[in-house]
Structures are given as C-alpha cells and as structure tokens.
Amino acid sequence: MIVRSVLLRSRLLRWPLPVAARHYTEGNILKLQDRGFFQDVFPAEAIDKARTTLGASPQTVYAGFDPTADSLHVGNLLVIIGLLHSQRAGHQPIALLGGATGQIGDPSGRKTERQAMLLDTVNRNLRCIGEQIERIFENHRGLMWEKRGHGGALKPVLVVNNADWYRELNFVEFVSRVGRHFRMGSMLSRASVQSRLQQDAGMSFTEFTYQIF
C-alpha cells in the first residue's frame, strides 16, 4: 500500500508521465470498449441507446470511490482514466465518494467482510481522496489539455459525497422507496454474492445490501 501511494503521488499528482499528443474527442465513449476498456455494459440490451445518447449530446458520467484508505491506489487508476476520457469528450465527470457506502463495505473480490471503520476515519479518508482527485484533474487540465493547445474548456470534475443524501433517509423510508425496485433473483445471482455464499463465513446482511446503494 505504501508503494502504491507513493507511485500515485509522484506520477499522477505532481507531474504526469510523458504521453503522446492524442486528443480523444469522440462523444460516444463506449467506443473505448473496442480497446478493452470496459468489461461489461449493463443492461446489455441498452447499449445501442447508450451509444446514441452519448453521441448526440453531452451527458453526465460518474465513478465511485469508497474511502477504504486515506489515499487513492493503483486500482483506482483505470477508473480515473475513464473519467478523464469522458471529460475530454465533453461530458460532465462526477467523482462520487462513498461516505455512506464506505461504511457498509463493498464485498466484491473479497473472501471476508471488511472491518468497520470509525466515522472519523471515514471522513479523513474522504477528505484526502477528494483532494487527490481534484489535483489529478487540475494537473490534467493545465499540463495535458491547455499546455498542448486543445481548444475548448473542460467541464470541471464535481466531487460529491453520497452520505449527503443518504443521511436524510431513515431505514423504513429507504426500503419502501428503493427496495421495491430490486429483485432478489438478480441480487443473489451476482458473482460477488455467489462467491461469498460458497464460503464458510458467508455474507452479512450489511454486505448484501451494498448493491442497492
């Protein structure tokens, strides 16, 4: 983790590595799938409509970052590159920080449940990650967009925290308004759920509900 943090700070936050002078302007960012950028599109039947919508006018594209540590790591790099591609294509990028979902814990790729974090730790991690994301986008704008003479202003990244709206909902209201839109069959069929159910430790209700937030 120390090595990952140092690499990110030195290579992304302070000064970007030399790159080819390439300007990606295609509004339909799903064309990145041809380069293996996206693993999947969900729901699959909506991909044609998504291509048309993305190519017709600027849209809003978001990516989530849970505050599991006080720094970004190499696993976040591909996600950030995706947001930068979206920004360069004219879309509005949003970095969604998981102030609420980070307290639940993403079960994806894990064999055991994440340890619960203190709220003070979550808030500190949120602040650090938010500052790093803003710095990366600012460096990209100044050193890789304006300095290379690309025309047009980039839409600045918006950094938001999902705890800002979830904290206003009580549990009964949330289940009543949101829960009815999710089917148990599809929730249970997710790979992250199935892999954990096959483990002796299983999966807690807390982790299972992560997918509806």
UniProtKB/TrEMBL annotation:
EC id: 6.1.1.1
One GO location term (cellular component): cytosol
InterPro entries documented for this protein: aa-tRNA-synth_I_CS (IPR001412), aa-tRNA-synth_Ic (IPR002305), Rossmann-like_a/b/a_fold (IPR014729), Tyr-tRNA-ligase (IPR002307), Tyr-tRNA-ligase_bac-type (IPR024088)
Gene3D superfamilies: HUPs
GO molecular function, one term: ATP binding
Superkingdom, taxonomy of origin: Eukaryota
Keywords: Aminoacyl-tRNA synthetase, ATP-binding, Ligase, Nucleotide-binding, Protein biosynthesis
Short name of one Pfam family: tRNA-synt_1b
Catalytic activity: tRNA(Tyr) + L-tyrosine + ATP = L-tyrosyl-tRNA(Tyr) + AMP + diphosphate + H(+)
Gene Ontology process terms (BP): tyrosyl-tRNA aminoacylation
NCBIfam families: tyrS
Family, as annotated: Belongs to the class-I aminoacyl-tRNA synthetase family.
Protein known as: Tyrosine--tRNA ligase
Annotated source species: Culex pipiens
